[in-house]
Amino acid sequence: MKEKVLEIINNIRAAKDMAPVAELHIEDNLRNDLGLTSFDLAELTVNIEDEFDIDIFESGFVNTIGEIYTKLEK
Amino acid sequence: MMAAFLYNGERKYSYEVLINTINQHQEYFPLYKAPDLFSYFVNLIKAVVTNSPLVLLDSDLNLSEVPGIEESMVNKPTKLTNYHFSDMTAVLSALRQSTSEITIFTSGTTGQPKKVVHSVDTLTRSVRIGEKYEGKVWAYAYNPTHMAGLQVFFQAFENQNTLVNVFNMQRDEVYEKIAGHRITHISATPTFYRLLLPFEQSYLSVQRVTLGGEKSNNHLYENIHKIFPEAKINNVYASTEAGSLFAAKGDCFQIPAAIRDKFAVVEDELLIHKSLLGKSDSFSFDGDYYHSGDLIEWVDKEEGFFKFKSRKNELINVGGYKVNPGEVEDAINAIEGIRQSLVYGKANSILGNVLIAEVQKEEGTELTDLDIRKTLKGQLQDFKIPRKIKFVEAFSLTRTGKLRRT
């Protein structure tokens, strides 16, 4: 699951000509650390939903990688 | 001590600095892609107070999408005849008599951005001036080259209020600005407010919250109310074609009595009289009326109360930007190796909708989704580029996300 999230995030970064990140940390902030805009976050939700069938932003805002993992582990 | 005009990042600009800057260089840019918000406002005010024409270009507008724009003229200064403004009273007096024509662009229904020319009168039609509007501090949350951004600017400027730039800022920063500047007024798209969720803390300085641009739901209103418990919440209906027309509480709008005879409703579609509109070659009129494309439902026809039902055409609202899926499909279909495409909006909790493209490739093509997106980057504005490209054998969905009936 974590590998898949990493892949999805690196794909988003690739589309905006940003270098891939080698690994994700639970405290990584999606906006500040990973450089995702609101459009990128929307892309992230679509891809995570396609993969895991969960809308991670449905019940409020998600800020960190750790919060994504928590939602996906439920 | 004069009020601050603008806080932009770490910079503060007083009204005094603004007037000095306007007086300093007697030239302006008729076609302007501004490097920053202060320069943008200075240029706008210079044009308006000297009755000069101005074309406002979005910083990410791709000039190849816009017909009739001479690229070499962008950001070329033009001399203005001698002027001097001693104070804001003089500036505002010139603004109110201005005969400037301001050109803005919208993403149109026919593909290319639509050019609309407005008088200062149309742009400032909804501005309210008076004692009760003094001393306000606005969060500036709209794209400054779009209609809504101009509306907020003129409302604040004509009352010598303070603007605090929060456009495209992150959640934490926005809250920091609201608290730090004791912001009283916020006018923004529902997407902006959605990004402020979830509720964590109340901000009591905010007196008014205005939503525009897209429809929004009760869940959002309830949360806004928790975050800004002292604020009145209202919606505005404004369009690039006509500027601000009516405002109301909740999801019900009222056409003001003074302009009630300027509207008609035919087959549920709201028609707007041409006297309320800017000028554009791309408007097509039905007699004296313009088809807004908005389908409405009367709540109280006598009093002019109505609700919006939907859009007549298929424009997809992505984070407050309107995208014509046909235009995006045309761009994708033009890429070598692609047979056909279907672009639609998928409901999304962040942007309202996110653009998805289903693409049929020609046999033997190696194209990847990244290749397609990179090709589109050179042709379309960012918000028009699908965030997910699915390669399919056949199309499964219509643009509204329903199963396609064949």
Automatic annotation (TrEMBL), chain A:
<protein>
    <submittedName>
        <fullName>Acyl carrier protein</fullName>
    </submittedName>
</protein>
<dbReference type="Pfam" id="PF00550">
    <property type="entry name" value="PP-binding"/>
</dbReference>
<dbReference type="InterPro" id="IPR036736">
    <property type="entry name" value="ACP-like_sf"/>
</dbReference>
<dbReference type="InterPro" id="IPR009081">
    <property type="entry name" value="PP-bd_ACP"/>
</dbReference>
<feature type="domain" description="Carrier">
    <location>
        <begin position="1"/>
        <end position="74"/>
    </location>
</feature>
